[in-house]
Design a protein that fits this description.
By secondary structure, the protein is mainly alpha-helical. It contains 4 helices and no strands. The protein has a domain of 38 residues. 74% of the residues lie in helices and 0% in strands. The radius of gyration is 25 Å and the shape is rod-shaped.
Length: 72
């Protein structure tokens, strides 16, 4: 998992970074709570990209089927 800064480490940073660190901590909390859903969505997106790539290659890179070849 990710490591989080302790309050002492936050004090060493510039004062303007506190808001960004709080925002990042909140986003990390959300991602950790919903990690299984994020993994599922990532897998679905990967499968969709594979399908789209396979369809494009089938349409554009393979030879034309014989019944359509001589019909013009």
């Amino acid at each position: 998992m990710t490591e989080r800064n302790t309050p002492l480490e936050n004090q060493k940073k510039a004062p303007g970074l506190d808001k960004n660190l709080e925002r990042l901590d909140a986003e990390l909390d959300v991602m950790e709570r919903h990690s299984t859903e994020l993994d599922d969505m990532e897998e679905e997106e990967r499968e969709a990209l594979k399908k789209r790539d396979r369809e494009y290659k089938n349409e554009h890179l393979h030879s034309i089927p014989r019944p359509r070849k001589h019909v013009r």
